[in-house]
Amino acid sequence: MEAARIREASARVIAALTVAGRSRTTIKRHEAEFNAFARFLETGGGEVLPTERDCLDFIAERSGVMLEGLREPTRSRRAQLARRPLILLMEALGGGLPQVGQATTAPLEHCPARFRATRDEYLAACRRRGNAEASITTKKRAADQFLAYLEQVGRESLGQAQAQDLAGFWVRRQHAGHAPKTTGSLRSALADFLRHLHHAGHIEEDLAGRLPPQRYPRRGESTPYPWTAEEVRLVLDQIDRSSAIGKRDYAMILFTARLGLRVGDLRRLELGWFDWRAKTVSLTQHKTGVALTLPLPGDVGWAVIDYIRHGRPDAQCRQVFVKHRYPFTAFGSSTSAGCRLGYYARRAGIVFPARRSHGLHSLRGALAVTMLQADTPPPVVAAVLGHAGTGTTAAYYFRLDIEHLRRCALDVEDILGAAQGASS
After folding, report:
1. pTM above 0.85, yes or no
2. Residue predicted with more confidence, 218 or 16
3. Is 140 labeled as catalytic in the residue annotation?
4. Does the annotation count 387 as an active-site position?
5. Angstrom distance (rounded) from CA 64 to CA 44
6. Considering 262, 268, 312, 323, which one is annotated as catalytic?
């Protein structure tokens, strides 16, 4: 009798996973864990419904890790894979609806408890100043890292913080090997936090002035990866379009490759911005505030429609592309929406050289080069990419058009001959 209830609950979980658009691999993994758990219960008699203790014993047998509770944080990947199906199964056995996509554990708090009130006071001040949530996220990360360092070096109050603490923290961050742009963002956010601490009376000295100057990369110093049309095709071929996440990733990558939309605008894309009759998409660019209308190719439009109809979860936001993890929110402006592009590129066997950016934004360069090599006038390229003028297009993308640059090459023999003639 109880075995039948477990089978029925397992089937409800599988149905919930299917409705949520989980991949075949995920569903098979859950089925395998359910079957293994049923065999585990049979060895113990299997006459009553499983308890949390039974789940923990099963996880320990599968992974060698004994947890104190089903939602206890663990670094063991095997324990995580065994635990997740059991959480859903126990919810189903309890008569509830399995919450597919919910967080297994609560978010970790990186700020020491003794400094948390001051940190929250600072973030509230940022919101009152009208800072965007993306900026607040960056500032929170910088404050948390610095406050955690203060606790590590034994500072019991902010009043004990000294310039040497800031120097030690900064040296540690420099050794982390982050890109100059990342380090620059951290420096800017940390300086703002330190100024707040000084103005609020938490520290006597304005330590923001003690931060070292930050070198930002020069324009063109970090060039995007020169995608070819064949490489883009290989990446798209690696995406499993039968899964919900695959439908989303395919539409996002294809949209960027074909229309060159900035990642920030791709995150914000709303269904109401599409004119399906005119086959266009219109938006106001987040970076420039300039209106932009782009033609909507058929393959891009159908990819978006396929995702909306058959892949997008029931999210309570207007954005087209959303996270496939409960509660299914839109991508935040600080979220790397393009991180899966690298995953598909690796599966396609593409190796990126060092110091070459290869996120979704790099696909804008591929589109620009394709248009330039087709002798598209620079003003048209600038308009498609949403640039205010051709100056930005020239600075970033003309140098990537190797075929046209070859036509500008000078004959070395002619130059040497002219130099010898002038000297004689």
Report:
1. no
2. 16
3. no
4. yes
5. 19
6. 262
